[in-house]
Amino acid sequence: MRLKKPLLLNKPFSLALGRGIHVTAFFILMIVSGEHYRTIWMPDAHTIRIIDQRRLPWSFDLIDLHSVADVANAIQDMAVRGAGLIGATAGYGMALAADEAKTMRELETLANNLTRTRPTAVNLNWAVQRQLTSIRSSDFDDRVAIARVEAEMIANEDAAACQSIGQHGLRLIQNMAAKKPGQVVNILTHCNAGWLAFVDHGSATAPIYAAFDAGIPIHVWVDETRPRNQGARLTAWELSQQGVPHTVIADNTGGHLMQQGLVDLVITGADRVTRCGDVANKIGTYLKSLGRQR
């Protein structure tokens, strides 16, 4: 979805999840050069449009994907990355697969081709299987329409979940701001768990955007995040587009900043969270958690 003009922030936004389900929420829409973009959308029935994340922050380029092979290449080459976005890309990819396939066996083959692009990406397989389940439970002749609706639902649900994270996390930042009235709240983040890793809003960055939009004075320390520099390349670019004050730092700088009392909160993404509360995330996250505990 691309909007010709940016929507005003903090205005009620009606979101169609699909199948007649609508929710109304206060969305903080992600802006690039004054326009709202999602990371992925279908401008027409046969095209998926994505942001080429390999070229950020040097160039903002959009790529059109016209086949399942194009989608598979985009995932493998990391033109799209991040759990939520990979899942949404797989969902839209299955919409193209439904159009390409003439039989259920052909569709399952195309589905397997998508799944093999990133075998460790849980959201990818989840989205593919969700699409197959929806198609199998209906008349095969309706597969294209069903897959397109399901793809939009997957994308919209991802955006809604991230927006909800932002609203819940906002309270943590509000509480910290209340402890230091009139002062800047300094937040440290690692890697990129922003809107580029999802469909919109992001996960770890969603509370930051919500706080900034609420008028809380904040500043973000952005770990560069080696070896692929997702923090320096992607998170910093996101924050700059939103106008959020930030500073890119070397990965090992966080401990010193904490020692000097220059970090109020650490907010990172979580690749996976177990039932007992253990968290797995990008290498380097553990040291940040240890430093903040002290």
CATH C-level class of the largest domain = Mainly Alpha
Count, helices: 9
Q: State the end-to-end CA separation.
A: 44 Å
Strand content: 15-25%
> In CATH terms, what is the architecture of the largest domain?
Up-down Bundle
- CATH-defined fold name of the largest domain: Four Helix Bundle (Hemerythrin (Met), subunit A)
* General form: elongated
| Alpha-beta content class | alpha/beta
Q: Topology as H/E string? A: EEEEEEEHHHHHEHEHEHEEEH
**Tally of DSSP β-strands:** 13
Average of pLDDT: 90
According to CATH, the homologous superfamily of the largest domain is: translation initiation factor eif-2b, domain 1
Taken together, the total number of domains comes to 2
Instruction: Describe the strand arrangement of the main beta sheet, using strand numbers.
Output: 10-9-8-11
* Major sheet summary line: 4 strands, parallel
Estimated radius of gyration: 20 Å
Unreliable segments (pLDDT under 50, ≥5 consecutive)?
1-17, 21-27
